[in-house]
Amino acid sequence: MRVLFMGTPEFAVPPLEKLVQGHYPVVAVYTQPDKLGGRGRSLVMSPVKKAGLSAGLPVVQPTSLKDSETVQQLAGFRPEVIVLAAFGQILPGPVLDIPRYGCLNIHPSLLPRYRGPSPVAAAILAGDEVTGVTMMLMDRGLDTGPILTQEKVAISPSDTTGSLSARLSHMAAETLPDVLVRWTAGEITPRPQDEARATYCAAIKKEDGEIDWQLSAEDIWRRVRAYQPWPGAYTSWRDRRLEIIEAVALPAEGGLKTGQVVALPCGGAGFGVGTGDGILGVIKVQLQGKRAMLAADFLRGQRQLVGSVLPS
Questions:
Q1: pTM to 2 decimals?
Q2: From the DSSP assignment, how many helices (H) and strands (E) are in the chain?
C-alpha cells in the first residue's frame, strides 16, 4: 500500500514515525514551507520535515496544492492512500481524487465537535472532561467527511494544549496501522457525521492570550492551559510581558479588586490575582527576557508586585 503522508507540526510526527516503523511504503512526505523563526530569524524546518528527512523520505513543501503542476507532481508518486495530520492546507478536489483509498485525516477531537484548526485548545477552553481522536475520510468540506474510527481520552485538570496534543498524537499513531489495514480491506463502513451536533473552532491568534482579569478565575485557568505552549496566557508587569505558565482557580476573597495581586499564605501558588469571580493562584511565570520560574521565587525578587493591580 503506497502511502503519501501530509503533516507539519509535532502532532503529526508520531503517526509518520509509526508508518515508517511498520515498514509501510511511504512514497513522499508533504509539509509546509520552512518559516522564519528563532532569535536569528533564520529558516526553520517543520517537525515533520525533520522526521521525513531523518527517515530518508522524499520531502515536498508546496506553497499551494491548487496549481496543476503541483497536482501532477503529487499524482506522480502514485499514492494509494493519503494520510493527513495537521497539514495546514485544504486539499482541493483534484488531490482528493488521486488515491484509490482516498484521503484519511487524523483530527484531534470527537467530530463533529470542534471542526477547524484548534480543537484541542477548544476542548480545554470549554471545560470538556473528554476528548479524542477521529480518523475520517476527507471530502470537500472542512472536517465534514464520514468517520472511520474514534478513540476517547479523559482530559486531566493539569492538561495543557501541549500535553493533551502529545497524548492524542500517540493515540492516533497506535491506531493508524490497524485503521489502514481494515479500511483498505473493506472492513470499515464510514459513518456520516451528525450535522446537527457540529461545532466549529477558530484559529488561535497571539492576542487571544492577553488575560482579561474581569473573567472568572475558572475561565482564566482554562485559558492558561489552552494557550500553553502558544501563544501563552499573559499580562504585563512594569511594561514587560508576564506570562502565566501554570495556575489554579481558587475561591473568592472579599474586597479584592480585579487584577490585584495578593500574597497567598499557603498552598502551591506563589501569589494570587483577583478576578471577576475568585482568585487565580499563580504557580509558574516567565517575565519577558527572563527564564521561567516558580511564582514564589519570582515574588521574592519582585516584592512590589503584591498590592499592585495588573492591567486587563
A1: 0.95
A2: 8, 15
